[in-house]
Design brief:
This is GntR family transcriptional regulator. InterPro entries: GntR_C, TF_FadR/GntR_C, Tscrpt_reg_HTH_GntR, WH-like_DNA-bd_sf, WH_DNA-bd_sf. Pfam families: FCD (PF07729), GntR (PF00392). It is a single chain. This protein is mostly helical. It has 2 domains: 66 residues, Winged helix-like DNA-binding domain superfamily/Winged helix DNA-binding domain (Arc Repressor Mutant, subunit A); 142 residues, GntR ligand-binding domain-like (Four Helix Bundle (Hemerythrin (Met), subunit A)), CATH 1.20.120. A 3-stranded antiparallel beta sheet has the order 1-3-2.
Amino acid sequence: MRHEPALLQAVSDGTSLMDRAYRRLKREIIELERPPGDQFTEQHVATAWGLSKTPVREALARLHRDGLVHPVPRAGYIVSAVTLGDVADLCDMRTLLQGEAAALTAAKGLSVAERERLVELCVDDGYGQLGGPHLDERLRSNYEFETIIANGGGNDRLAESIAEVFDEIERIVRLAVRLSPGMPPFRIEERQAIVDAIVEQKPEAARAAMQHRTRSARREILDALSTSQAIISTPILVPLP
């Protein structure tokens, strides 16, 4: 079974109302249509979408388990905040999971078609910015690149975990890009090192290259989020002795 982030998944006609409500709400949260701190009620969503409350309630329960919303007693739900500490933890998990996936994929090897597609997706210079009108397209290309590697090692649980991490990271990346849309330096070179190691079937080199790239991404994301006015204007407390 191929595991991939929600951004790459197609919605089938047979999808239940609950699944459709879940995906729609999740996409609105990830794409920042419902930003962190946004508050709404089950009834409001059901009425706006012409649904009964039951599928919306079930969708919100799933989103709560995902950590994307939190119930507020007698006031509905609130979209979960983004904190630097949680982002750092998530990025560290990404490094551990993707590093191992890259090593497994390099050891097992990819098909000719997968190798060619990985090489094609490696080039991501675009027009010098991550942000802009082509952000969705670039995110899909990036996630396809990562999905090939995540699934290439043949470990279903590892690939599934990486897909789940990317669902969480997508919201953070979209927020970071709004704050700092520029293209980070050495991005393409770092991706090329990953591809080279996988194509040459060098597991340790693939692990090291992937870890180097994901740690760079961690710094880029945290640096961008640190420019938020909400961070800049937060008082610094003196720690207790």
